[in-house]
Amino acid sequence: xxxxxxxxxxxxxxxxxxxxxxxxxxxxxxxxxxxxxxxxxxxxxxxxxxxxxxxxxxxxxxxxxxxxxxxxxxxxxxxxxxxxxxxxxxxxxx
Length: 94
What we know:
Blueprint (H helix, E strand, L loop, with lengths): L14 H79 L1
């Protein structure tokens, strides 16, 4: 901390520049807050859109999964019927 009793120093204190710096910092802070709010709003909107798209994909995936399960069940039933038919033909031939 400078000793003001010793006389002038190389860098005298300047209250005006400190006030100007504070004012500029306030303005910069306000601009940053505005930008941040705008960026956050835009980001939030993008996240909402992504969430909607992911929900659609999830429903589509669930639908495909259900269809595949049904197809698998039908194929198992068809295979079982074919095996029974083949077994009965084998018995008839013996």
